[in-house]
Records
---
Amino acid sequence: MIALGIIGATGYTGVELYRLASQHPDIRIEFATSEQYHGQPLRDIFPHIDPSYDIVLQSSSEIADTSTDIVCFCTPDGIAMAQAPQFLERGTRVVDISSDFRFDAPEVYTAWYKRPHTASSLLKSTVYGIPELNRDQIRDARLVGNPGCYPTSVVLGLAPLLEERLIDPQQIIVDAKSGVTGAGRGLKLQNLFVEVNDSITAYNVGHSHRHVGEIEQELAKLGGVQPFVVFSPHLVPMNRGILSTMYVRLTSDLSSDELMTLYKQRYKDESFIRVSHSCMPATRFVSRTNYCDVRIDRVEGTNQAIVTSAIDNLVKGAAGQALQNINVMYGLDEETGLM
């Protein structure tokens, strides 16, 4: 059994990871932490937790000497970079679901997150955790930076085109819509029910959202050229889900059917990528699953194409992908605990 520790178990991502990991046949949850609720059973806060697998929450100080095989950080930005080194030093592997270990260069992290990176020496050995792209590196990794939810939907959506150099990387426009859990569980005025309900709101449009840096970093690796992404995220009145619509300029004459064949061939061996031919991707089809549904359509008579992808931001966009990474790291079938 893999002994897992969850740090930050009472945020939306943390409790989702707990839900998934508690059903995993090869994982034992060794501890779960919460600074706000330590000393309380997790089920007192989230009654939907399986009563046969409840656990009493601990503070970070209480688990300092607890031995585990791997820990997952489901914490606000800045915490993993402070605490991960001590786990790595004693041989514990780490998956970080926050943004702390997603960037290759500390100066890029600082530019987007407006804070210095206090564990920058670890970045060179960190693996970016999209198994469909980096499976071989993840297998032997000690530290995996779990991707953000928006970047997951965009990078998986555009990977086949960039790998084959079929689009202009300087002409990428992304319109993305996310459920409210993507903003976290903390109390914020703009996330209150009466502010969100019956309304769709754009925010941090253009080139200002923090995920743009992560998206451009990973697209550059795929296409070999630094891209420029115009990114407009929207908050929509639903609990979970992301739908990303990507507008790209083609550099080839491939038809819609040929482009769809390209996507099917690229993802034919990927359990969690479904290339949609008969219908458009929709958040309701991926809700509470680790699937990414993707589709591409050429705009006839033009050199434009539209890629659409849908994921559950809490599963494939966070906790599910973390569990998929753990499966890869320990040589398990990637579907274990996720199907």
Note: The CA atoms of residues 43 and 50 lie 8 Å apart.
---
Amino acid sequence: MQVFTKRALREYGIQNPSVALELLEIFNDLEALEFNNGADVRAWKPKADYVGGDRWVINVGHNRHRLIVRIFFPAKQVYIRFIGTHAEYDRIPDITTV
């Protein structure tokens, strides 16, 4: 998959070193894997949640942080839409617009 953008994950990892390695692993997995549908996403991350609008939520750091990605299966593209704490995630009024 083609992932946009690594910079957001790298910067968040610098600010939150406890999840930096996990974010790097997620990025590397996203680049190496090829998702054809939601079942492929769940095979990779069984606890990933589809929230609508092509968006998936991935728990990071034992659910203390959340990553929202937008996956376009036919184009094989993944967009990083949000990375933040669980509390920051909870304040998002409509996840499908992130």
Note: Residues 35 and 43 are 10 Å apart (CA to CA).
---
Amino acid sequence: MELKQIIFIVILIASISIFLRNLLRLLSYLKLAQPENRSSNPWKRIAHMLKVAIGQSKIFRFRVAGIIHAGIFWGFLMLLFSAAEAVIQGIYPKFSLLWFGTLYPVITISTEIFCLIVFVSVIISLIRRFIIRVERLKGDSGEFKDALIVLLSIFFIVTALLFYNSTMNFWYPSHEWMHPVSVFISRILPDSWVNLTYHISWWVHIIIILAFANYLPFSKHFHVYTSIPNVYFSNYEPTNKVDRIDFEKEGVEKFGVVDFEDLSWKSVLDSYSCTHCGRCDSVCPAHITGKELSPRDIIVQIRHRTLDKAPIMKKQMKSSEGKVDLTEKENEILNKKFVGDYENIEALWQCTTCGACMTECPITIEHIPAIVGMRRSLVMMESNFPSELQTAFSNLENNGSPWAFSPSQRTDWASGLDIKTCAENPDFDVLFWVGCAGSFDDRAIKISRAFAELMKIAGINFSILGNEEKCNGDPARRTGNEYLADMLVKSNIETLNNYKVKKIVTICPHCFNTFKNEYPDFAANYEVIHHTEFLLGLIKQNKFKFKNGNEVKKIGYHDSCYLGRYNNIYDKPREIIESIKGFEIKEAHRHHSKGLCCGAGGGQMFMEETKGKRVNIERTEELVSLGTDSIAANCPFCLTMLTDGVKHLNLEDKIHVQDVAEILLDNIEK
């Protein structure tokens, strides 16, 4: 065995040992977090992983950055062949990928082409980050240093490989055609430099790879290892679901996320996987309107807290007596509050739970469950929440609604429509779940009446719960008061089961999402339909006769977050509008899954928005800029926020904001 081989083997063993030690240390911290079963539907998970992680499907939502990153990612996958070859050659110098036979030319040519793609992508990335300085890529000096180290490492890895391959062209001239890129280097490389270039390029290539592999666990680029498993273990659908707390479980001393160990292990893995790319921040309605909330920072701080506290917890666990002498710095870390010292409390209350951050994240990080978990600890453990929420909580507890209306007023909206309650008409086919906004808000009541009239015209046998209906629990859940939400959910389930409800239709996407995706956790399964889905079905059954309209009317359209991003319903409401003769949808700049939130979700409807620009104004200005005289929505909360936005802009006489049901009712024969 030659000295070169001995030196390499020593370096390789040391490198692998250090790598495994650090990797296992970081993975051991996951065990300190809460257990969660993410093993269901393995084939679906594999398909999702292949599409999102390997196929990079979400990365292209930002086209330029997506092309650059995909080039580097796929290039690195191809470079695994050359890296493996280099490692094996360090032990067995005669090893070659030539042993792959007919696959060798394919591997070699592909590797060379991807080397060029990676080379160019790295150059562009350096320009974007350090010269153009793209806004969402801005960070502290540590992030810039980290990015520089990683990008330069990749640059030298592919450069060294190309120089190494160029020397092969001297010894195997018949293989020149397999090296379409490095052949240009070989043509300018002096013969006297070939042997030296071969050895230097091989050592540079392999040493940087080994150093790079050991640097990654300490950097934000740890996602190179964790992103693929992170996508595999993600909640592929529905992505923004909030899990229940079992309040009857004995021994529970904490509710919500008090510290990092109260998060699920997946949330900690999320923090390891975050690339700091800033895509989440760039679409967050709170962040882009000048507020403190940064979805990226929330995930980053989870990692910081984990790396600060977990080693101390492990140290304490190793002590047989459970007591261990801690340094002053370690005690200082333990005495810090995760929510407060690491996470900005005010920022947590600015989240609208719109899900834009999770939709854009290319590695499926789950921000909202973490945020809601922290809100839970603030509400249920510390009673630390915005004062305006106290009114909403009290009303929900006493009246079953976030507003101060008596349950006896829940049927007032239906005055003159001859609508039966379940008690009056127990043999109904469909339960119309009106919701709190649809029952009490003056503007939303018009939606309820329009939809009820449409069902009557179509001959639907439906009933309402009337004063037996209570809030579905969403406002309490999203604002962290899970105990209150739990009470509301269980009360509603009891009422629904008493009437043997099978099918529910509702005008509210929040009610729709909660019944469809979260009530099953309480063993309550119903067929839940949003009113736009229901109406489209009636249109296809020819239940309505449309008026003969002649003029072309363009309508701006706003996607509800809880209908769109949460439940992937985008086209059906649009189909209703486009089924009306002469009506056309004019899309906003941000639409469908990229649509901007109205600003009402996550309890914001019941809180004051005091920082930065109001989200509903930002969204209304975008819709107004379309130049249409009508804006369509599919959610009573969105409708209220957009109507307020139009009034704020003094355009209420020029622009009308309507629900899809109202638009349909205006354009059919009664």
Note: Residues 141-171 form the longest helix (31 residues).
